[in-house]
Amino acid sequence: MTKSLKILLTGSTGMVGHNILENTEFKKYHVFCPDEHELNLFEYTAVDRYISKNQPDIIIHAAGRVGGIQANIKHPVDFLVQNLDMGRNLILAARANNIKKLINFGSSCMYPRNADNPLKEEQVLQGELEPTNEGYALAKITLARLCEYISREDESFFYKTIIPCNLYGRFDKFSPENSHLIPAIIRKLYEAKESGTEEVEIWGDGNARREFLYAADLADCIAILIQKIDTMPPLLNIGLGCDYSINEYYAAAAKVIGYNGRFCHDLTKPVGMARKLVDVSKVSNMGWTYSTSLADGIKKTYDFFIDNEIKKGL
C-alpha cells in the first residue's frame, strides 16, 4: 500500500484514534479523521454523504461511547443505542458506497461472563453476558455480526471485527465518571499521595483478573492488519495473552507514582467478570505481539496524566 491509500478513521479524538494518528506507519497514508462536527455518525445521510465524497479505500471504526463499570451500570441505554446507531450507520453507508474494506472495533465484553479463559473468538454468543456491561456488549456483538453478514452475502467485501482486550495509555480519560481501571487507579493514587491519604479503597477483593494493552501497541497491530485484511478472520482478538489481578494493577501503579499507603477492600461493590483473558494465537500467527510492559505503560500514561491533566488543571 502506498501514500495514496485513503483511510477514514472514526473516533480520531479518542485514545485509540490519537494513538493511531501518532503511529509512524499511518503517516504514510492519507487519513481522514473528522471530528463529531465534521461527521455526525448518528445521522445516516451525513455519513453516506461523507463517504461518497471522500471514497476511502478502508475504514477503521474506532468511535464509540465508552466508559468504566460505573458508567455502564448507570447508562445502559446510551451504551447500547449510541454504539449501535453509530456503527450501523457507518457500516451500512460503507456498503452502499462500495467500500470494500472495513475494520470494526469490538470488545472483550462480547464474551460470555462464565466462558473458559483464554477467550477464543468462537465463544462469542455461546453464553450469558456480564450484566454490568450488557448494553455495550450487545451493541458490539450486533455490529460484528452485521460485518460478517455483509461479507457473507458478497465475498468482495472484507468487513472484519477486532476484539481488543482492555486498553489504556496516552490520551486516556481520567475523570471518575468515564475512566477505565488503570487511568482511574492513576488518578486515585495521585490524589491520595498529594493529600496524604494513608488508605485507598479497592472495589471487591481485588482478585479479579484483567488484561490491559497499551494503546500504542494496538496502533502497531492495526498497521499490520490493514495490510492483511483479506486474510483476517471475521473476529480477531488482540491482547497480551497474560493478565494481572486488580490488586497487582494497584501495586504497579503505586510503585510508579510513589504512593506508599495501604489498600483496603469494599466487598459490597460490583467487580464484573472474574477474569477476561483473550486467546491471541490467531493474531500472533499474523505476525504481531505486544511490546510495552505494564510498568512502562503505566509510566507513560502517568506522565501524560501529569502533563495534560494536572499541569493544565483538572
Structure explained in plain terms:
The chain has a domain at 6-173 and 212-242 and 277-292: Rossmann fold. It has 10 helices and 13 strands. It has helices spanning 15-22, 44-54, 69-74, 76-96, 134-153, 181-195, 215-225, 246-257, 281-285, 294-310; strands at 6-10, 30-32, 58-61, 101-105, 158-164, 166-168, 199-203, 209-210, 212-214, 235-238, 244-245, 262-266, 275-276. A 6-stranded parallel β-sheet has the order 2-1-3-4-5-10. β1 (6-10), α1 and β2 form a beta-alpha-beta unit. α4 packs parallel to α5 and α8 (246-257) crosses α10 (294-310).
Main attributes of the structure:
3-stranded mixed sheet, 10 helices, Rossmann fold, 16% strand, 314 residues, alpha/beta, 6-stranded parallel sheet, globular
Q: Stretches where pLDDT falls below 50 for ≥5 residues?
A: none
Q: What class do helices, strands and sheet pairing give?
A: alpha/beta
What would the average pLDDT be, to the nearest integer? 94
End-to-end gap? 42 Å
The major β-sheet equals:
6 strands, parallel
CATH architecture of the domain at 6-173 and 212-242 and 277-292: 3-Layer(aba) Sandwich
CATH top level assignment of the domain at 6-173 and 212-242 and 277-292: Alpha Beta
Give the overall silhouette.
globular
- Number of beta-strand segments: 13
SSE arrangement, N to C:
EHEHEHHEHEEHEEEHEEHEEHH
Looking at CATH, which topology of the domain at 6-173 and 212-242 and 277-292 would you report?
Answer: Rossmann fold
**Number of H/I helices:** 10
Helical proportion, percent range: 40-55%
CATH superfamily of the domain at 6-173 and 212-242 and 277-292: NAD(P)-binding Rossmann-like Domain
| Binned strand content | 15-25%
